[in-house]
Amino acid sequence: MKQLILTNFSPIKAINLGSLVIEKNNRVNFYQCNGASMHHDTILVSTAEEEEAGERLIRDWVVFHSFLMKYKHSIYHYDSVRVSQDLEIVGECAYLIDYRDIAGKIYSFARSEETKEKVLDYCDLFSKYCKLLQEEKNVIKNFLLNLSCNYSCSRPINPILNNQYWQLMVYYSVVEFIIGKQKPCMCNHRCDIDECNFAKNDIDHKSKSYMQHVQDYLTLRITDDEIRNQYYNCIKSCYSELRNDIVHRGLVPSAEYTPQAANTTEEYDLSRSVEEYDKDFVALESLLLMTEDVARNLLLDKLFDTGIFLQLSSLKSTNISR
User: Fold this and answer.
1) How far apart are CA 214 and CA 206, in angstroms?
2) Contact 4, 84 (CB under 8 A)
């Protein structure tokens, strides 16, 4: 059984992944909308397994590849059109990389200081993936859900129905899985702390606040104070300002796009994004991208023990007029 899969980076050489073999194929023309098109490298994945078993293997690998390479095109078009082999070929694969050392491509498009000394092998990571519990694989699938992007055509700048807030909740739910549930206070309703009103009234309770629980987890995993504080503040904004209103009350803000002055650049750091996400469409986009990075970096660390946490990048919006 063979299948073509869209990808951002192709392997220089064929890679054996147990019962699967993946290898570079061609660069193809895909997505045609309003006269525009988009080119993708493709990977040919093959297996000697028969139809049903082979499809299960390929489906499982597509989830892994889409998550690891941060390329949701792979999974969305495998699911929607089962990318056929009659696509228009526009040339050879353009982005060939060594899959034995992909840390820089997993976390960014170029080597950064954080990934320079870390070697991550695609085959080793796939071996770890195959050993994950089904629950953990399901969390990866949840992360890959894309409510806020239409891959078949361009997205309107100022939509009436804006599902980016719900996309934020998808990524935040992944964070909640990673952080885990707190254990109940072991005081048996006899806390020595005077302020513990729960114990006084025989109510089961936690020994600390949820955000303190988050802080403790991040402190164990992230040594860099600045990056840890960024992740904490991003999670806090989702938990304190968005989660309850959106999930439990159905209250979704209505951010709108406000045109910038000609030939100007606006920068949206975490502080500005948190402050303006409810009224500024670009601030919402920035907060969404940051929350996605927080969820992905924490999930990569939890499932694959990568120990890499990149600083959150500001979003710059430029209006170019001629």
Assistant:
1) 13
2) yes
d(CA 228, CA 314): 16
Confidence category of residue 77, pLDDT binned at 50, 70, 90: confident
Q: Tell me the residue type at 99.
A: Y
Q: Using an 8 Å Cβ cutoff, are 4 and 42 in contact?
A: yes
Give the Cα separation of 318 and 194 in Å (integer).
Answer: 55
**DSSP notation for 13-54:** S-EEETTEEEEEEEEEEEEEETTEEEEEEEEEEEESS-HHHH
**Token representation of residue 89:** 């070929």
Q: SS3 for 196?
A: coil
Compute φ and ψ for 134, nearest 5 degrees: -60, -35
Among 164, 167, 165, which Cα is nearest to 156's?
Answer: 164
Unique residue bearing structure tokens 């924490």 = 298
pTM above 0.70, yes or no: yes
Task: Copy the structure tokens of residue 247.
Answer: 């999930």
pLDDT of 85 above 80? no
Residues 6+ apart with CB under 8 A from 69: 7, 8, 9, 105, 106
pLDDT in tens, 212-236: 999 999 999 999 999 999 999 999 9
Cβ-based neighbours of 249, under 8 Å, separated by 6 or more: none
